[in-house]
Specification:
The protein is mainly alpha-helical. It has helices spanning 9-18, 44-52, 69-72, 81-88, 94-98, 123-143, and strands spanning 2-3, 31-32, 76-78, 100-102. The radius of gyration is 14 Å and the shape is globular. Bound molecules: 4-nitrophenyl phosphate.
């Protein structure tokens, strides 16, 4: 799960998908394309909305997406088109490129919709992002 800062959207996506799969069978992590918040906890607004739905994100720490992630993961989900492009810039070959998808394309195929960045908005933005990610993670969990 990849966003820009790895403190708002992708930690939520990680926590939500983790709650829907068998942790012995599926390994999920998140990262940001930027390093601004490396080592930080998720944004307190993400922690809060997750806890409202029974999820604890406080074990997560932000990290930057790295080229090694193409070897570690089978699927790489970008939250928006900017993250998508920045991940693709690091791809070494076609196999790497094929792992990267816009996450909302799992709900709206080929529509290339963005999960909106809630960082500069209010708490209602986090609630909306939570619901979007909960819907898409349900589809991803069933596929996995
Ligand atoms: P995220 O949100 O990419 O969903 O983690 C953001 C977090 C931090 C910043 C931007 C977006 N920032 O500019 O610091």
């Amino acid at each position: 799960m990849v966003c820009l800062g790895n403190i708002c959207r992708s930690p939520l996506a990680q926590g939500i998908l983790e709650s829907k799969v068998d942790p012995d069978k599926v390994y999920i992590d998140s990262a940001g394309t930027a390093a601004y918040h490396v080592g930080n906890l998720p944004d307190e607004r993400s922690i809060k909305v997750a806890s409202k739905y029974g999820l604890d994100l406080r074990h997560q720490r932000a990290r930057k997406f790295s080229v090694n992630d193409f070897d570690t993961f089978d699927y790489i989900y970008a939250m928006d088109s900017s993250n998508y492009q920045n991940i693709l810039l690091l791809a070494r070959n076609k196999k790497d490129e094929e792992k990267v998808q816009m996450i909302l394309n799992e709900v709206y195929p080929n529509a290339n919709k963005n999960v909106p960045d809630p960082y500069y908005g209010g708490t209602d933005g986090f609630e909306k992002v939570y619901k979007m990610l909960d819907d898409v993670c349900e589809i991803i969990a069933r596929k996995l």
